[in-house]
Amino acid sequence: MRFQKLIPWSVVAVLSALPTGAAHAATGGEPAITQVDIAPCLAASAADDVDKATSACAAVIDNEKTTKADLVKALIARGALLARHDQIDRAIADDTRALLLDPTLADIFNARGELWLKKGDKPKAVQDFGAALKIDPNHEKARANHKAMARELERIGAQMAVAGKPSFNCARATLAVEKTICGNRELADLDREIYGSHLRALREARSPTEARKIQREQDAFVARRNAEFGRPGYDLKKAMQERLQQINGVDGY
Q: Which residues form the signal peptide (predicted)?
């Protein structure tokens, strides 16, 4: 009786909620089932302590007795910690495992999408942002990420559509230099970049006088390119690269 009085009422309440067999074990009839302690893993991850979190979270994640709910929490905590320390592949692996256990986690789909984006895998990033929005259409971060990536993919698609094509119609090319540009993907891309940068410079001109100067420079480059192409020592690619740098500045645009 004296021992029973020493048991806190909170413990009594927990024991009363356990199945009969478990309560009997917890009171000494059989060995108690030890619950895996997830607190050190969560605390170390929150404190950004990589060393402690590595061992504490592994003790939870690798333990067969860990409940599904705690396993998901530990994976998410460790994944976030790894992401903060740029261990992208390991963070993706933890998030993926967590999502396999619980595919309703919109935050984790969004977090993994951001990790895919860091790796440069834009299609997978968009897919994860979309998955987050299916779960939670009001998820602000996922919606913003998905919108930004959709625009980026459209831009990439537009670039791919004109990749290897110069700024002029190759069907109407008559000069040797134009035909050479049309027949070389790298030179064609350079020509298109030069033309696009030239148009931007014209739009940003601060006065009509400056715009006319920019146009004269471009006309002079084209005339010099056409006249010098094929001569000994003339490097068309180098000349085009120098022109692009001249328009955009030393550090680019």
A: 1-25
pLDDT above 70 (res 31): no
d(CA 166, CA 178): 9
The residue behind tokens 């917890």 is 26
Rounded to whole angstroms, how far apart are CA atoms 100 and 97? 5
CA distance 79 to 91: 4
Could you report the per-residue pLDDT of 202-249, keeping only the tens digit for each? 888 889 999 999 999 999 999 999 999 999 999 999 999 999 999 987
H or E stretch at 26: helix 20-26
Global pTM? 0.52
Q: How far apart are CA 105 and CA 102, in angstroms?
A: 6
Domain residue ranges in the chain: 38-162, 170-248
Q: Which two tokens stand for residue 135?
A: 């779960």
Distance between CA 72 and CA 136 in Å, rounded? 19
Inter-axis angle of helices 88-101 and 106-119, nearest 10: 150
Burial 158-189 (b: 16+ CB within 10 A, else e): eeeeeeeebbeeeeebeeebbeebbebeebbb
**What integer is the mean pLDDT of 153-159?**
64
